[in-house]
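Q: Here's a chain of 386 amino acids. Please give me its 3D structure as tokens.
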Amino acid sequence: MMTVAPTEKMNFGLFSTRLYKGISIKTSLFKNSYEVDVVLLQKWIPLLIMNMGVRSFNLLFYGNTKDRDFPLPLLVVFQSESLVELNLQCYEIIIEIENPQILESVQIHEYRDWFFRNRNTHFPHLKSLNLHSVQLPETFDNFSSFFPCLIELILDSCPGLKEFRLLSSSIKRLTIRTDRINPGKRIKAFIDTPNILYFEYSGHGFLPSIKFTTTSNEWKSEITLCYRLEPSDNDATSWFLKLNKLLKALSQSHITLTLAPYEYKKLHINDSYGGFYKPVVVEHLKLWGCSCLDPAILNCFFKIFRPCYIQMGNGLIKFNLAEYISKLIPDETGRYFWLQDLEEVSIEVWKKKAKEWHCVEMTSFPALCSQQQIRFRLTWKEQFSL
């Protein structure tokens, strides 16, 4: 890959002699020569991509232009007959593509918004679309119709991602991250992806409302939740109910669930809450933070789902879950009723050479604390097995 940083000393002739057909161009803008750079780019990008057969174009912008007397944003329009890969990491430059016939991969970071010069523009061969902090249009429901062959879609902290429908028979990998979106905005999504193989969601502070429709027999989902539960029965109960709905929507997949509380407050949750007909099977549960092991919280979790494997974060690696659970003996009210469905808790260690998990004796646990790759295997009664 060639890296090119145009300056006022360059001219197009000198710049173009360094390029060859089929090359990948990476262009960087620096604030000390910003005005010159953007003018050159506005002229050169269309010529380079149209006339020199460029297949990969990478545009990055560095610097702050708030105090500059320069017309922004700058618009660059070009036709793409050879471009296969496009990567944009800039805020003040708008790229519009006409007739992107063979473009296969697009990655855009920190962008004002995403739109097309021609509203009827289609990307017939685009397979991967990665949008990070990109303002999505209100007409997102029709978004997927522009990409009939899209296989992978990543929406990372995109403002405007509130309520949408995604219908696509081609998408196999879907990632939605809301870590940098206002926690007060809850996402509602209806996702119809019959051929999905992998779904990932990560959020900070709130839970999405997602409905999934798919015909896939074998697919995986990874959910990462950073949360804070307030010491109020209503607030805490509401959060657990939303978690239950989310996991129910993904119950046909092999679920990996990561729970990471970023603030711990002692909760007083009504023990009568719950009443779920059948807990969801979670294949892998990862716990980060001591509050996850609060008896009241753990009890609520196991009312909603039954994990097959549990891994602890670094701060909990010395915590013997098997010993802890054995002490949760049901009282007369049957508070920890899920213990009746738990048959066994065992410890497994990851063997690097064999690249597989091995079961070890419970008495060996103290000597295993220095090893990072430890997990607990929970065996439930048949009705809760995978």
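Q: Can you summarize the key feature?
A: Residues 301 and 318 are 21 Å apart (CA to CA).
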